[in-house]
## 1
Amino acid sequence: MTFKSPSTGDPVPLSFIIPKTQDDLLKRRKALEITAEAHHGILGRTPDYVNIQVTATRQMAELHGHTDKRFGDNLIAYHENIRENDLSLTHCFGHPQVNRGVAVGQQPDPYIPIGVVDTTSEGIILRGAKLLATLAPFSDEIFVPPYRPLRGKEEEMYALGFAIPTATKGLSFICRESWDTGRSTYDQPLSSRFDEMDALAVFDDVLVPWDRVFCYGDVELHNHIVELGIMWRQYMQHVAVKNIAKLEFALGMTHAMVEAIGIGVHAHVQEKVAEIIDTTETVRSYLRAMEADAGPWMGEGIWLSPEPTIAMRHWAPDAYQRVTDIMQQLAAGGLMLTPTEADMESSIRPVIDKYFQGAKIGAYDRVRLFRLVWDFIGTQFGSRQILYERYFNGDVVRLRQGRFQTYDYSKADASLAKFWQETDQS
Ligand SMILES: Cc1cc2nc3c(=O)[nH]c(=O)nc-3n(C[C@H](O)[C@H](O)[C@H](O)COP(=O)(O)OP(=O)(O)OC[C@H]3O[C@@H](n4cnc5c(N)ncnc54)[C@H](O)[C@@H]3O)c2cc1C
């Protein structure tokens, strides 16, 4: 889980390693696996996730310091600070969802997105809000990288990248309600244990000290950093590891349900379970490919291979949705045949034992299993899991538009040209 700190020699988390070799990536993967398997892939935002984002950004310290060297130096010092103190971070990219039909600088109030109010000798004063800070109540720090291309000088006040403690004066978080409603682990096996919380971060004239600023006031550089998509080039290893843990958990639940109610004899059920197996193994292949073909790109160290990384980022949300659809289809009405723990302990238990038993499982365990599946795909917690998988990594619609516009079509075009040439010659 740790490596030797380059500055102190102390053991520090592997999520902070700047990978220089494939072996470094494999060491980091092993550490990520231990964490992901501990929560069965349910927690998307264990701190190793943003640790890798900051590490990737730090690999590009020189770029951040392009106009003002201080910003690159700040990034290096910040990375060292959170690494040595093993701090927990939340992060926020998006602007509040007020009017997505117009640009950042055209919202009804210029300080709906976070913008600069003033600068002092101490730092910059910021006002506005950012979404969506998962893990905020459990975090020491908030990391706000540059996000979305800006139109030009008129949007200079939004060209920002920084990090500050969550306990900073003027910074507050508006959380959604908790999905942990105090029920037992029998009644709500996941909601009762794994709600990582989501929040809007509100900046009410917050002072960000200069030594915590990584990007400021340079629209061209800001846009270049956004365009490079630096962080996902490293954190997709975390995503793949988490997804494998989650898909294995989903497969385990599905397999148990199939056995529990004896539906494995039906051909379409076998085919659907196999689809979950194939999805799991596809993610494993993406992970291997992104690591095996990793290499130098820009800045320090090596980076995951881009093509499998991009392809998985665009494919995974729909694949996950399909897995949950299969689970719902196979569980069917069983998802509603789920008396509570209190019912289990009541006088109706003999009736429950008779009618809620399965083919190879007693009523108590069968109900517990179906309650787990419902908490995974159907409760508020389960619905949030599905929403998370659709959006946590950006909006695939827009990502694919970018893919359409930037993909290197030369091989594909050459293939067609060759075909026409062969056709003409035949
Ligand atoms: C559970 C959960 C946890 C999250 N955790 C974090 C986190 O920890 N940190 C973080 O920074 N973010 C987090 N996110 C936010 C995530 O990055 C965003 O949800 C995602 O980028 C989509 O942005 P949005 O939600 O603002 O949707 P919007 O951008 O408002 O999109 C809404 C709809 O409008 C369409 N649309 C909007 N604008 C355009 C356009 N210009 N062109 C075409 N279509 C458009 C979209 O396709 C979509 O269908 C989280 C999201 C979820 C759901």
Note: The pocket of flavin-adenine dinucleotide is lined by residues 45, 91-94, 97, 100, 131-134, 198, 384, 387-388, 391-392, 394-395, 397-398 (CB under 6 Å).
## 2
Amino acid sequence: MIRWAAILILFLIAAPHPAAAERVALTFDDLPTLSLSEDPAYATTTTRRLLADLRRERLPAIGFVVGDKFEDTPAVRAALLGRWIRAGVELGNHTYSHGSPNKMGAEAYIADIARDDALLRQILAPAHRTPRWFRHPYLETGPTLADQRRIEAWLAANGYRIAPVTVVNSDDQFALPYDEAILKGDRGAAAAIQGEYLAYTAICLDWYRKAALELLGRRPDLVMLLHASRLNADSLGDLAAMLRTRGLTPSPLDVVMRDPAYAIAEVQADANGDDWLERWSVTLKKDLDWTGFQDPPADVVAATARLDTEP
Ligand SMILES: [Zn+2]
């Protein structure tokens, strides 16, 4: 009897854990929409399609709100954000004016976060919710470590956790040229941009997974940065299939953030807006292998530079 118990204990210790599911959190920035057009009808269609596909594909998600979008039409802004709230998608803070702490300084930057916080609390109050997550615009966390710590202290004191990013597919580079094609009614051009976007996303997913595996010696759960664009509204089914064929399970941000990798402390300021793999590589003193990494297609980048008139 005792021998059997000992064997059983040995078996339990030695038995391999079942392969942990590799999770990915989908995070959508620049709500209500990242778009070439502030036409409420266009924004509403984008929002409806995004939310319908999130539900159909059973994709947990979080949206990060920029308060000054649709500032002149607060009723439109409230209606668009109300759709996300009713769909059960959590809303987080992405600052009020999408500024950079490098340009504004920490104090003005914190005031801008607080302004977005006030708007979010007002919008979320009827649903008895409060904002819990913050995403830095441009992933810029502060020009010095002291600035970064000061911003982090405000966030923590006000109930926020920071949403890191460990997969980037530069979807914002494709979004405006796609809008332009859709608004012109040029379906051929739109399909071509979407094709380039999906091909580039596959390259990025594979590179980030490989880089994370090499850096940590295991596959961490991932946080993917996306934007609330028409392009993503029209591509969510393809994106979901791309994740699932790679064995990635779309999961809530809270769950992904339980991965211990996200506890790796930053030891040096990162003024460049780098993703968190690059930040971890600094802390762990281990270079990332950039082999296989590609920049977005030059024609798409050029089209975005032409269309993006914001400073
Ligand atoms: Zn943004």
Note: The pocket of zinc ion is lined by residues 29-30, 94, 98, 137 (CB under 6 Å).
